[in-house]
Structure formats: C-alpha cells, structure tokens
UniProtKB/TrEMBL annotation:
Keywords linked to the UniProt accession: DNA damage, DNA repair, DNA replication, DNA-binding, DNA-directed DNA polymerase, Exonuclease, Hydrolase, Nuclease, Nucleotidyltransferase, Transferase
Gene: polA
Catalytic activity: DNA(n) + a 2'-deoxyribonucleoside 5'-triphosphate = DNA(n+1) + diphosphate
DNA-directed DNA polymerase family A palm domain location: 683-889
Protein name: DNA polymerase I
DNA sequence: TTAGTCACG
DNA sequence: GACGTACGTGACTAAT
C-alpha cells in the first residue's frame, strides 16, 4: 500500500474509558464549587492537554465504551458480569469528560455492541494498513495484543511506552501470542475463565513450547504432568471461548472514518470558559502560558503560540492583610513559585531576610522579613536612606506563621529554583515544605550538563529575559553588602523577579518533561532525593578537631624537614610548591633525563614523571613526592577541615550538588567530603578523624563492584553475569577466563592485569590508556584487549551500539532512563571524538550506578523508620553510604541498609553491599 | 582566572 | 598515518 497525500502518519488513539477509571482512583477527591466531583475530569483534562501539546501525531481520537453489553456477552453471558456499577462519584463525570474532549475539538467515538478496545483495534489496523504509526494511549493489558512494529502503547500516568519488550515482560510472549496466553490464564477482572490452575507463567511456558493455543490443545495429550494434561483436555473448549473473549475485533463496521480524526486546532476561549466553569484555574493559567498579562482578567484571551511580553507587577507586602491575600491566591491557584532571600550562601549560617511568591507570570510579591533600615556602608550618615524612610515591615514571626500552612499544604505545588536551599532555610525556621517542584532539577534532567542550570542562564535561554543580577543589587568584592541591607524597592524588583522567573521556567520545563520522556527520572530519582539531601546536609558529620590539628602540626614539621633536604639536593633555594620552579631545577639545573613539556610549554612534574625519576635512583624527586603528599593532606584536609567546623553544631556540613555532573552523580563541596584520603597510610589518618557522637558508631556500606556489574548487565556479558552470580573474586575469574589459567595458584600479576582491563572497560578502554596504567607496551596492551573481547564478545557490541546511540541522539541513556549528554561525539577532530566516545561508553555505567544508589538513598529513611531505627544518613561517596547509628541498633541497621541497597534495582546480576562499623570512618571499612 | 597537581569513586 | 587518550569530580597553589 502506498501512502497518498493526506494519509495519516501518526495516529493517537486514546482509551478514554480506561483513563477515566485510572484518573478517578488515582487522584484525590476534588469537587467543583457546586459539589460536582471532578477529579477524573481534572486528570483527563491535564492528560489530554499534555498529549496534544507534546505529540507529533496528525490524527487524534478518544474512544469510549458505549454501554455495559457487547457482542462478547452473546458468546459468554458471564463476561464482565460481576463488575460492580461505576462509583457514585464517577457517574456524573462521564458526560463532563465527553465535554472536555469536545472542548479540545478532538473527535470521540463510541459504538453500541462493541467495546472501546475493539474500536481501537479496528482503527489501529486501518492506520497501519495505510502506513501510519499508531500510539494507543492506555495501559490496559488487553490492548497489548495490538503492539507491533508500527503500534505502541503509551501509559501516560507512568510515562512509559509499551512495546514488544514490555509485553514480553508482562505476558512472557511476543504481542502476537498474547491472546493465546490470555485464553489459557484467563482474566478474573473481566471474568474471562481461562483454564483453571493455569496462570500467566505456565501459559507463557506452554505457548512458548507449542507455538499457539490450537497446537497446544491438539497435542495436549503429550503433556507430561498428569494434572496439567487433564485440565487442558477437559477445558479445551473453555480456552477457545476465552480466546474469543480476549481477541479484539479488528473489523468493526465503524461509521467514523480515520480521516475524520485529523488533528484540528481548538478555540482557546471555548476551552478556557469550560475549564473555568469546572474550577480548573491552574489549567487555565497553564493554557495562558507566558502570554498572560497579569492585569487582563480572563487570562486565556491571548493566543498561546505568540508570546506577548509579560507586564510584570510586583507588590511589596508589608501588611498582614496583603500577605493573607497572597497566601489565599496561591492556595486557590494550587501552584506557587517561592524563593527565599538570606544573608549568605550557607543555609545553616544564613539569616532569612525575605520571601517572594509568584502566582502567575508577571504576578509576584516580596515579603521582607529582616531588612536593616540603615544605609549601606560607605553612605553618608546624613543621606536619607529610602529603606529607613520606607514602610514598616512585617515581623518574622507573623510572616512565618502565615506562610507555614501554605508551604505544608500538599495540595499546593511549591516551585523553587534549587529548592534544596530554600527548604534548608525554612527548616532552620522550623517550617517544612511538602509538594514541590524544582526548576533547576527539571532543567538538569532535560538538558544534563549541556549548559548550566542557574536561573539567570535559564531565563535568558528559555524566556529571552535578562534578569537583575545579584551583583547589581549587592555589589561584588569588598564592597558587597548582604541582602538585608538592600533598599526595599531594589529588593522587591530583584526578589519578586526571581519567583516570577521560576514560575515561568516551570511552565516551559515541566511541559518538556513528558515529551522528552524524563518524567520518571525526575519524579523517581531526582525530586524525592531533595529532602534526603536536606537532612544529610543538616546532620553533618563530627570531626575530631584536636586530632586534625595534631596531624597538621606533624605534617608541617615533616614538610619543613623535607624542604631543607630538597633544597640541599638542588643546591639552591626554590619554592617546592611551584611546578614551574621545580621543573627548572630538575630538567635544567640538574639536567635529569626524560623531561616532557606540558601543552603550555612548562616542564611536566606530575607524580608519574617524578616516580619514574625516583625509580632511577634520584633522591630529590622522591622527596618532592613525599612533600607533595604531606602538603596536599595538610592544605586540603587537616587545616581546611578544621576551618569548616560549624560553631553551632560542632560538625562539618558539606553541600551536595544535585544538578552538576554529566553522568548523574552527586558532587560534594565546601568541603568536599567525597575525596577524603584512604589510599595511603598517611591519608587514612585523616579518615580516622571523622568520628561518631558518643553512644553512636559510624556505619559505612558500599556496593561491591557496582560499575562492573552495570557493565555486565547493560552489555549482557554472559561470562561476567555468571561470574557475579557465582559470587567469587571477579578479577581473578576474569584473569582465568581471558588468560586461560586456573584461579588456584594464579600469578597475582595476572589478576592485577585483569583488574586493570575491567576498569578500562568502564572508562571506554584504549590500548594506550591500559598500557600507561600497567606500564606495558601499547602492543601488549592491545593483545590483552583483544583477548578480553574474544572471551567476552558482547562487550564490543555494547561499545559500538553505545557510540551509535550517542551519534544518533547526542546522548546515551542509563538503564533507568537518565540522559547522559555526549558533546563532541561528531567533532571533526578525531581526538575530541574519541574522548566523547569513551565518555559515552562510561555514561550508562557510571550514570546507572549513580541512579541505583539514589534509589537506595530515597528508600532508606522510610525503611529505617519502619523498623523504629534512629540511624541518620550522613554522606554519600558514589558507591558508599555513611550513617551514624546508635550503638544498640548496629546490627538491625546494617541489615536494613544492606537490604535496601541490594534491592534498589533488579539487574541481570545481583547487587551486593558490604558494611562495617567503627567509632571513626577509618575504622568502619 | 587558568594551569598544574592530586585527593576520591 | 597522525592525532593524544583511560571515566567522573573539587581544592589548593602558583603564575598570570
């Protein structure tokens, strides 16, 4: 069949009835002012709105069930006979939902005697015959039999696409065998009898073995298990009837033609009026999008496609009445952007200065809480400050009291930009925030590290808006003032804009989430992690100040000794900490061999270069290495950490960045507690200074080989998967398999090489890199890699597949759907491209591991609470979690932590977590 | 501000 | 045949 002009390309068939029930049961009760229940109507409306704005479909229709009876009741009167009548609260919503569809100007179809599923089957068949793609918007398993090369299903509530693999997962067979399986196992919800005693698993196994139902029934007497054979022989007719019940009719004599589903525009005014009548103000606001002018009463008159400039109207809130009005408006809208202004960046030390809210584009307010009336430093005393002359501001107590219920109200969505910070600030004031979105995290899951996620940058990018910069309001450098000293008029303009922009960014970004299939990543991996991180940062970790200071003195003393020795050896004084001066000493004054220049023409004095010289017997570079180690430990850890101890808590509180890395990992800073030394003996002393409170111990639990397990899983490497199931020393087994030697009595060198290759795979292996790592020749490294690929052929496939994915999309996906962007993958510079290719290969592995530990962290607090355990999460170090645990609860806590970590994901390999206790972090390993 | 170095997974 | 490399971070110092 050849396509002719006007043929549909992509057809959306929405299972209206299915969605109504799911929306009704999935959403909390909602009602119109007149008392009519509308939760299903609301759910249906938002779904349809998203669907229509996100899809490339050119044909759309919503299909409903017409009545309770269909032709199936003629075959089997009991079909769906036991279904209770629709819930009382749902009945009045059926006609309203048909009105919704009409308001969207989308055709709806229903037909007496046929179920919606049959109509969907019929139209899908017609569409495929005309060369179109079909998306069935439903999660009903009865429709899975229709999935095919050109037909997919979309579960909008879970944002999941159902194709052949998902069908296989559900029924254990390909879509074309689904009816056979259903015929055997039946369906209690629809009263389809099936064969007694046979469930999905057995049915799939039988169909897999015999091919289809008819063959199975014909050869039933061959079945070995006597009981199963008997039931099949006795119930053959029941199975055939069941098959007729579940098989969808593809040739219903429909009256509406497929062509009549061609997508057509809808009248926004009609729709807005209808929605307003249902009380759906938040949807009306969304319809208006960025085109809404705050003064225009009906927000929907402007066409959404043309973004009219927003007329910003910001209000300074200085009376309780006005504050109450804003809270009421936010509650009514169901959505509010909010932002806090403070005196600093550290949420534990910063003081709350004010709060801004935004309820619609351009409509925002600022509530000052603590603004210093005095002029900024440097102003003349006689200068009458506008702030001093301004109106009185509301007190902290009353403002917080009025805001608390709004922030705690689960039915009002609070939108923040980096809301982690605002939640921490509010937590200091005793307020909790429930039901929130974060535009920074939205931006991060959508665009990864392809650009920054600061609000200024996003405002320019998505709204073409230049924001007022913090520096414009507070200055920079030594002239910088804190926000509480900013005059109120300037504070209003800056702070209210922040909330306003946040709200408008939310409109743009949240809409992209579904279209770009990032709902699940955002809602299950990123957003729920925020409160977990808030608690971790607030908890902090105790460090032994005295021990660190003693270490610092010790390191300092030894450095001074080494400096004397080094300068004596050099024959002159120079700054040992200067790579430039050291390079001259080594390669010019002393004329040592093998000096290499860095790309800027300096002598390279990295550890590998110094080690090589030391190995040749040169003393000076060896002592520089020692000096550098001590210098690093003293400067970065002992001294810096002591300076970071919070005066109030006596603990160190890091900051975890959630929207920074390219792979989805967290990062830690101020101080970085993810790079505390452990590999060297001297370094470990620092780890021993991280201690538990009296009566507590530290628990360190880490995933064993999580990245290599991810490799085995995503690449489907049978040899490695088996090895992980066997639970033995993975590097030794790799060595045995690749080099063909027994594990017993293995040369440790072979194991070391196998380990290096295993790591190399994770990094997107190259012969050069492996050679460098092992200190062997390029050729030898290449022969190892070839041997590895020969033993595990799936790895090569995975690497090629991943690079292809990166080239096609500009990103690769982790097993949990996170996008890892791969800029440079098409660069004309070969080195750049190779770099991007290795990063692409690493992406699903490192990113997948990051996803898994995030899942564990999200589940852990509730799992601990469920067993009444008081342990607190303190740190995450990529594959390790550190908790502070009451001594009496050690064993129970370890069990919960390991269980949660190990069950955080279901892969083709087991996940293993190992945990230890200690009074210090160093002892807990 | 950038480059070099080195701490971690 | 040359390119110039293991993946992902943050903090410190010297030099600009």
């Amino acid at each position: 069949m050849t396509a002719v002009a006007g043929d549909p390309q992509h057809v959306f068939l929405v299972d209206g009835s299915g969605f109504i029930f799911r929306a009704f049961h999935g959403l909390p009760a909602m009602s119109r002012p007149d008392g009519t229940p509308v939760n299903a109507v609301y759910g249906f409306t938002t779904m349809l709105l998203k669907l229509l704005s996100d899809t490339d479909a050119d044909h759309v229709a919503v299909i409903f069930d017409a009545g309770r009876l269909s032709f199936r009741n003629d075959i089997y009167p009991e079909y769906k006979a036991h279904r209770p009548p629709a819930p009382e609260d749902l009945v009045p919503q059926f006609p309203l939902i048909r009105d919704v569809v009409a308001a969207f100007n989308v055709p709806s179809v229903e037909m007496e005697g046929f179920e919606a599923d049959d109509l969907i089957a019929t139209y899908a068949t017609q569409a495929v015959a005309r060369g179109a793609r079909v998306t069935i918007v439903s999660s009903d398993k009865d429709l899975m039999q229709l999935v095919g090369e050109r037909v997919e299903m979309l579960d909008t509530l879970k944002n999941r696409t159902i194709r052949a693999p998902e069908v296989l997962e559900k029924f254990g067979v390909a879509p074309d065998k689904v009816v056979d399986v259903q015929a055997l196992c039946g369906d209690p919800t629809d009263n389809v009898p099936g064969v007694p005693g046979i469930g999905v698993k057995t049915a799939a196994q039988l169909i897999g073995e015999y091919g289809d139902l008819d063959s199975l029934l014909a050869r039933a007497s061959e079945i070995k298990q006597p009981k199963r054979r008997e039931t099949l022989l006795n119930n053959a007719e029941l199975a055939r009837i069941s098959r007729e019940l579940v098989r969808l009719k593809c040739d219903v004599p429909v009256t509406e033609s497929l062509d009549s589903f061609a997508k057509r525009p809808f009248d926004r005014q009609v729709l807005a009026d209808f929605l307003a009548a249902q009380g759906f103000k938040s949807i009306v606001a969304r319809l208006g999008g960025s085109s809404v002018t705050p003064t225009a009463a009906p927000a929907v008159t402007a066409p959404v496609a043309v973004a009219a400039p927003v007329v910003a109207q910001y209000e300074l809130v200085t009376s309780v009445e006005v504050l109450e009005a804003w809270v009421a408006e936010a509650t009514r809208m169901g959505t509010v952007a909010f932002d806090t202004e403070t005196t600093g960046l550290d949420p534990l030390r910063a003081e709350l200065v004010g709060v801004s809210l935004a309820t619609a584009p351009g409509r925002a307010c600022y509530i000052p809480i603590k603004h210093d009336a005095g002029p900024a430093q440097g102003s003349l005393l006689l200068d009458p400050s506008p702030a001093a002359a301004g109106p009185d501001i509301l007190g902290r107590e009353v403002t917080l009291a009025k805001l608390a219920p709004l922030l705690a109200d689960a039915s009002v969505l609070k939108i923040g930009h980096n809301i982690k910070y605002d939640m921490q600030v509010m937590a200091q004031a005793g307020l909790t925030v429930t039901a929130f979105d974060d535009t920074m995290l939205l931006s991060y899951v959508l665009d990864g590290a392809s650009h920054g996620h600061g609000m200024d940058e996003l405002a320019k990018l998505h709204l073409d808006h230049d924001t007022i910069k913090f520096a414009d309001v507070c200055g920079t450098g030594k002239n910088q003032i804190t926000f509480d000293r900013v005059p109120l008029d300037k504070a209003l303009a800056y702070a209210a804009e922040d909330a306003d922009i946040t709200l408008r960014l939310h409109g743009v970004l949240k809409a992209r989430l579904l279209a770009e299939r990032m709902v699940t990543v955002y809602e299950t991996l990123e957003r729920p992690l925020v409160p977990v991180i808030v608690a971790m940062e607030a908890a902090g970790i105790k460090v032994d100040r005295t021990a660190l200071m003693a270490l610092s003195a010790e390191f300092g003393g030894r450095m001074a000794e080494l400096e004397v020795q080094i300068q004596t050896l050099a024959g002159r004084e120079f700054n040992v900490g200067s790579p430039q001066q050291l390079g001259k000493v080594l390669f010019e004054d002393m004329s040592l061999p093998g000096g290499k220049k860095t790309k800027t023409g300096q002598w390279g004095t990295g550890a590998d270069a110094l080690e090589e010289l030391a190995a040749q017997g040169h003393d000076l570079p060896a002592r520089v290495l020692d000096w550098r180690q001590l210098s690093k430990l003293k400067g970065t850890y002992t001294d810096a950490l002591v300076a970071q101890i919070n005066g109030r808590t006596g603990r160190v509180h890091t900051s975890f960045a959630l929207a920074l890395t390219t792979t989805g990992r967290l990062s830690s800073s101020d101080p970085n507690l993810q790079n505390i030394p452990i590999r060297s003996e001297e370094g470990r002393k620092i780890r021993h200074a991280f201690i538990a409170e009296p009566g507590h111990v530290l628990l360190s639990a880490d995933y064993s080989q999580i990245e290599l397990r991810l490799v085995a899983h995503v690449a489907g490497i049978k040899g490695l998967i088996q090895a992980f199931h066997d639970g033995a020393d993975i590097h030794a087994i790799t060595a045995a398999q690749v080099f063909g030697v027994p594990v017993e009595g293995m040369d440790p060198m072979l194991r070391r090489r196998a380990k290096a290759i295993n790591f190399g795979i994770i990094y997107g292996i190259s012969a050069f890199g492996l050679a460098q790592q092992l200190g062997i020749s390029n050729g030898e490294a290449k022969s190892y890699i070839d041997a590895y690929f020969g033993r595990y052929p799936e790895i090569r496939d995975f690497m090629e597949r991943t690079k292809e994915e990166a080239r096609a999309n500009g990103f690769v996906l982790t097993p949990f759907g996170r996008k890892v962007f791969t800029p440079g993958i098409k660069d004309k510079n070969g080195a750049m491209r190779a770099f991007a290719e290795r990063a692409a290969i690493n992406g699903p592995i490192q990113g997948g591991a990051a996803d898994i530990i995030k899942r564990a962290m999200i589940r852990l607090p509730a799992a601990l609470a469920a067993e009444g355990l008081k342990a607190r999460l303190l740190l995450q170090v990529h594959d390790e979690l550190v908790l502070e645990v009451p001594v009496a609860e050690q064993d129970a806590t370890r069990a919960v932590v390991c269980r949660v970590m190990e069950s955080a994901a279901q892969l083709d390999v087991p996940l293993v977590a190992e945990a230890g206790f200690g009074t210090s972090w160093g002892d807990a390993h």
